[in-house]
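Quick question about two entries, pasted in order.
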Amino acid sequence: MIPYTYSLHHIQDGRSFGFDPDDYSRFKFGDDQVARRFGEALADGFIRNFLEDNLEGEQIVVISSPYCFIPTATFAMKNYFVYRLNHWLVENNRMVVQEAKVHRTITYKEDYGALSAEDRLKLIGNDSFHIDKDFIKDKVLFFLDDIKITGSHEKMIMKMVKEYGLKNDIFMLYFAELVNHDIHPNIENHLNYHQIKSIADLDEVIKSGNFRFNTRIVKYILNCDFNSFLLFMERQTEEFITELYNLSLGNSYHTIESYSKNLNFIKNYLNNKNYKLI
C-alpha cells in the first residue's frame, strides 16, 4: 500500500524553508502559540489542495506522531489542525474527525535530529508501534507529523499497517518535508535548535503563557549538565517541577542512567521541600 503524502512546505534549500526557523525551534520546545499557527496552516493547505474535492462522506481519523506517555510537539499541532478541520467539515455538512493514538514501546535518549538516515532507521527499528485496529476499521487515516526528513517514521508506520493488515486509505500529512536529499538529515537539528541553543533559552518559552510540555523539552532538561540544570530549576515554579517529574516517570526516564542525577535531584526536592535547589 502506498500512502498519499501531503507536505505544506518543501525544503529545497538549507537556508530558506518557507517558514520561520525560530518559530519552528520554539514549537519543538513547547510554544503552543506557534503550534496553533502551524496546525491551522497545515489544515488550510490540505483542505485547499485536496479535501475540498475528495473524501466526502468518509469518516476521518486523525493520528498524531507515536508516543508513549508524554506527547510529542506534533500533538499540540494536531490539536489545532483538528479544530480548524472540524470547522470546515461542519460548514460543509461532513462528519467531524475522530482521533486515535499510535502507542510506542521504546523511549530513547539519542537526539534523533542529529542522526543520518541509516542511524535513524537503526534506532527506531528497535521500536514497535500499536493501534486499535477495530476502532479504525473502514475509516480514512490521517497520520500527522511536523517534519519528514528521511521517512524513517513513515516506514515504521507502514510496517505497522502491514503487520495489522490494515486496508484503510492512508494519508501522511507533514508541516514540512525535506525534498532535496543532497542536504544532510541533520538539517533537522539545525531547525530544532535554531533559537533554543541552551537550557537558559527555555525560560522565555516556559514563561510566555503559551507553554506545553512535550518529550523533547523533558529529555532536554534531564540530559542537561548538572550545573546548568540547577540554575534553570531555581527559576521554575513548584508546579512546573512537579509536572516535569510526573511526566518523566510516566515515560520511564528513571530507567535511563544519563538522566538519573537530574531526576534524583527533582525527586529529593519534591520529597523534602526544605531541600535546597542551590
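Here is the second entry:
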Amino acid sequence: MLVAAAVCPCPPLLVPEVASGAAPELDDLRAACLDAVGVLAAARPDRLVVVGPAEQADRGSHPQGAVGSLRPFGVDLEVTLGPAEATPERRLPPSLTVGAWLLTRTDWADAPVEGLGVGETLGRDRCLHVGRELASSAERVALLVMGDGSACRTLKAPGYLDERAAAFDAEAARALGAADTAALAALDEELAQELLVSGRSSWQVLAGAAEGAGLRGDLLREEAPYGVGYFVAAWS
C-alpha cells in the first residue's frame, strides 16, 4: 500500500555543482525537494521506489546500489541509489540520478531502495497499472516521483513558447497539490508530448499507486525559472 509520496522536478541543475554560478537561483526549489523527501522517511516505508522518465535503454528496474553519473553535465560526480552494494552494470538515467542525489542529502530511512525508469510516452492505462503493482508490492510503499512540467512556458524555454503550456502546468500543479489521482490520470498524453512534459507518465504511475490510499497532498513549490514547469509536492 502506498503510504507516502514526494514529487520533485528532475533537472540536473538541482545539483549545485552542475548549476555552478546559477545554483542560488534554485535554492528555494532545492529546499522544497528536501522537505518533500523528508516526508518519505517520516512514513517509515518498507520499500522506496524512485520513479522517473528514462530513454529506451534505461527503462525498467534499477536495483539498490545502481550508480548515476553527472559527467554528461560537466561535473565529475557519481551518486548511488541507496547504500552502495555490488555495482550493477546499468547506469541510472538522469532523472533517477537526480533522485538518488536528493536521497543522499537527507536522513533517509533504512528501507530498501530501487529505481524505475518510465518512458515519457508510456500510455495512461499502462502507467496506472504499473502504479497499482508498485503499491501492492509491500505493506508500506513510498514513491519519490521525478519529472518536469512543460518546457514551453517562455520564449527562451527549450521548446519555445506555447500558449497552452501555462494552463496544462496549472492543472498538473493543482492535481499534485490536492493528491487528485483522477485529475492526474486524466492528463492529456498527446498534449503533454507536444508541450515537452517529461513528468506526465511518472505522475500517472503515482496516480495508479495512490488509488484508494486516502493520501493528502501539499504543493510545496511551483515555479518555471527557465521556461520549464517545476513542481514539488508531498503526499502523506
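Reply: DSSP finds eight helices and nine strands in the chain. The chain has one domain: 2-235. Hope that helps.
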